[in-house]
Amino acid sequence: MVEAKPAPNAERLPFNYGVFRSDKPADPGYSRELMNINIDNAHYDNFEQLPELNNPTNSIIDVFYKAVREKGNRHFLGTRPLQANGSFGPYEWMSYQDVFNIYEEIAKGSRELNLFNPILGIDEDNK
């Protein structure tokens, strides 16, 4: 199993999210393929045969709402602030609930200012 490994002196996150394939060698210069732990190995090379999920989800926002319900106070988005000496400090985390609260504030403010539009988006650099 592959585990999320925290930096030294960081909080340990107790979850596994994938496994490296043992049935297929790695390509030269690469590690073995990392597979989602929820995919049966019978489907590794045949995704068309994956069974349909019994999970009624109509949009990405449904996926986000479900994550907030299930993971509320767990770490979701983290940044490492740049220190004066040029190094990066420890992670500062926002929980799923923190991000949801900001999402709601933006949605309510947009509606109040008549900015609500189904094609409204926010674009930001990811460095």
Task: Tell me what you see in this structure.
The protein has helices at residues 60-71, 96-112, and strands at 2-3, 16-20, 34-36, 75-79, 92-95. A 3-stranded antiparallel sheet has the order 1-2-3, with no helix packed on it. Strands 4-5 form a two-stranded antiparallel sheet. The protein is an alpha+beta fold. It has 2 domains: 1-51, no CATH class; 53-127, no CATH class. The chain has 2 helices and 5 strands; from the N terminus they run βββαββα. The protein starts with a strand and ends in a 15-residue tail after the last helix.
Summary, kept brief:
The protein is an alpha+beta fold and 127 residues long. The protein is built from 2 helices and 5 strands; from the N terminus they run βββαββα.
- Report the end-to-end length measured between terminal Cα atoms: 29 Å
Strands of the widest sheet, in order across it, are 1-2-3
Taking pLDDT < 50 over at least 5 consecutive residues as the criterion, the unreliable ranges are: none
Order of secondary-structure elements? EEEHEEH
Globular, elongated, flat, extended or rod-shaped: what is the shape? Answer: extended
- How many helices in DSSP terms? 2
Strand content: 5-15%
